[in-house]
Design goal:
The chain has 15 helices and nine strands. It has an eight-stranded parallel β-barrel, surrounded by four helices. The radius of gyration is 23 Å and the shape is globular. The structure holds (3S,4R)-3-hydroxy-2-oxopiperidin-4-yl beta-D-xylopyranoside. (3S,4R)-3-hydroxy-2-oxopiperidin-4-yl beta-D-xylopyranoside (XIL) binds next to loops.
Length: about 375
């Protein structure tokens, strides 16, 4: 009799646990039969025409040259571009003294002939440093000369065409200097030198410091701000902050974004949202963008863009890619995602409507 009761209880517990697990897996879209979102979004105006600040996209030259739909979408909605990879050091000067400007030249000519703004990304980034610099065997003085040479060759070449630069990308790791070859060989104050060299090569270009994790963690925001202030006092011509903005549906919260922006505004520098994309599948459980995700992403774009626009120092918003057919997120995260405003068929997603309505200033 007792055994039977125990057995019945165990079965009951299993049924309850099984049901709850099943429902939650269904809810988060674990089963691949979650259907893809169906929508028909018509934007009443192009993004760039609705905005009072430049709206940019990170562009891939190969796509621009070979895919007419890509080019059409870019020119319809965007009036600012940045090279997704082609202006990084590894791409421009893969071997010492051997430059390949062909892709960058193409992009810049494309943009300037259409009156689009060009932002340069990026002169120094630890992830795009060529091997010959990582393993440089000369003296520290020779190393300095190489870095200065690269910066001034590139900025000088595009003087008057590239209106702003990310001179250094991701120099800080949390609340400390990142241990890079630049930090080790140029010394702790290297940012003062490299910004000065860029400024000498084009005194009218605006020079930005660009980084991630600049919206959610207020302690880090404060640390970076203090360091930027110190560098400016030490003579670094830093004119603006690039806030990358690779975010998710949940994080960071809109309230922490607003708090961080208020902090950045206190610096009284220019602010760019430099690499915006919103991951809809951060945990990797979905196989497709469902209706629910598409709606959440629409809302999230609307709220975060509205928050960005409250900054009086905002000089532009750039998406890190043009459409879901070409985005770095699936490679970075190792699973599918749909973080941009246009889908793989180049059609506007609900996210684009969210972005546009924030720009138009609908009740956010
Ligand atoms: C990424 C590109 O999108 C990828 O194609 C490339 O393989 C790696 O770099 N932060 C940055 C960008 O500042 O340069 C990075 O771009 C994405 C993260």
């Amino acid at each position: 009799m007792r055994k039977k009761t125990l057995f019945t209880r165990m079965i009951a517990v299993l049924v309850v646990v099984g049901t709850i697990t099943g429902i939650s897996m269904w809810y988060v879209g674990f089963f691949s039969f979650s259907p893809a979102a169906s929508y028909d979004v018509n934007l009443e105006t192009s993004l760039k025409d609705a905005a009072s600040i430049p709206i940019g996209a990170a562009v891939d030259t190969y796509n621009l040259q070979n895919d007419p739909q890509y080019e059409e979408l870019l020119s319809l909605h965007f009036n600012s571009i940045v090279a997704e990879n082609e202006m990084k050091w590894k791409a421009l000067e893969p071997e010492q003294g051997t430059y390949d400007f062909s892709h960058a030249d193409y992009l810049i000519k494309y943009a300037t002939s259409r009156g689009m703004q060009v932002h340069g990304h990026t002169l120094l980034w630890h992830q795009a440093t060529p091997q010959w610099i990582e393993n440089f065997e000369g003296t520290d003085a020779e190393f300095r000369a190489r870095i200065k040479g690269h910066i001034q060759t590139v900025v000088g070449r595009y003087k008057g065409q590239v209106s702003s630069w990310d001179v250094v990308n991701e120099a800080f790791d949390g609340q400390a200097y990142r241990d890079t070859v630049y930090y080790r060989r140029l010394g702790a104050n290297y940012l003062v030198d490299v910004y000065t060299w860029a400024h000498e090569a084009d005194p009218s270009a605006l020079l930005y410091y660009n980084d991630y994790n600049m919206l959610g963690d207020i302690d880090r925001v404060n640390w970076v701000m203090t360091e930027i202030r110190r560098l400016i006092t030490a003579g670094a011509p830093i004119h603006g902050i690039g806030i990358q903005g690779h975010i998710t549906l949940e994080s960071p919260s809109v309230s922490s974004i607003k708090a961080a922006l208020a902090g950045w505004d206190a610096l009284e520098l220019k602010i760019r949202i430099s690499e915006l994309d919103i991951q809809a599948n951060y945990d990797g459980v979905y196989k497709v963008l469902t209706d629910r995700l598409a709606n959440q992403q629409e809302n999230r774009y609307k709220q975060v863009v509205a928050a960005f626009l409250t900054s009086p120092n905002l000089t532009g918003i750039t998406l890190w890619g043009l459409y879901d057919g070409h985005t770095w997120i699936p490679y970075f995260q190792g699973h599918p995602d749909w973080p941009l405003l246009f889908n793989t068929q180049y059609e506007p997603k609900p996210a684009a409507r969210g972005f546009l309505s924030a720009i138009i200033g609908e009740n956010c």
